[in-house]
Design brief:
- The strands form 3 sheets. A 7-stranded parallel beta sheet has the order 3-2-1-6-9-11-12, sandwiched between helices. A 3-stranded antiparallel beta sheet has the order 7-8-10. A two-stranded antiparallel sheet has the order 4-5.
- It is of the alpha/beta class.
- The protein starts with 6 loop residues before the first helix and ends with a helix.
- Helix 2 crosses helix 7.
- The longest helix is centred in the N-terminal third of the chain and has 12 residues.
- It is built from 7 helices and 12 strands.
């Protein structure tokens, strides 16, 4: 189909994989940074790893706000715009205008689908895709956070390519396809640590 499940139904899907992805990606975040955390469930898994870091977070995600841990040391800026209740996020021209005011040290973005062969990242909402593409223009570094289930989804609108990201964090890459150099397999790194 050509629609995304609401955030409420995706909260626990692939949770161990999303946590491994977030744990690895969070190592790149330094206190004092201004970061963009995308909507969706995977970027919210970064929050526990940022609790003591004094970072400025910019997000379109009202879902993410509900996950901020007590005692969070940073600041959060919620984008304005048109509220999309089933995705627990905002988008639209107001969001784009606000994004253009920021210089992100790093952007952590999610996607609905990835074509491993072509590298195309796709999204079900054209307007959310436009917002993600705008964020890429204003980020010094960009990271895609995507569990391996995204490799089996093709959404309506392409908004980026895997090679547009400095780093791509996932728990597995499809077999038989050459893994790009910017892809980090987080589940393997986590298993290695456990086996030591």
């Amino acid at each position: 189909g050509y629609s995304e499940s609401p955030v409420a139904s995706r909260r626990q899907t692939q949770s161990a994989q999303k946590d491994a992805i977030a744990r690895m990606a969070a190592k790149k975040i330094r206190s004092g940074s201004c970061i963009f955390l995308d909507g969706g469930t995977t970027p919210a898994y970064l929050l526990p790893y940022l609790q003591t870091k004094k970072v400025q977070i910019v997000t379109p995600s009202t879902y993410l706000l509900s996950k901020v841990p007590n005692g969070f040391a940073g600041e959060i800026y919620l984008l304005g715009g048109s509220y999309l209740a089933e995705y627990e996020t905002v988008d639209g021209p107001i969001s784009l205008d606000i994004i253009r005011r920021f210089n992100f040290d790093c952007a952590f973005l999610g996607t609905n689908g990835i074509d491993a062969k072509s590298g195309a990242c796709s999204i079900f909402s054209v307007s959310i895709g436009a917002m993600k593409a705008e964020v890429l223009k204003h980020a010094r570094r960009s990271c895609l956070l995507a569990d391996s289930s995204k490799f089996h989804v093709q959404a309506v609108s392409n908004w980026a390519s895997l090679n547009a990201f400095d780093e791509v964090y996932t728990d597995a890459f499809p077999a038989g396809i050459r893994k790009p150099g910017n892809v980090t397999i987080c589940a393997e790194a986590h298993k290695e640590k456990k086996n030591r």
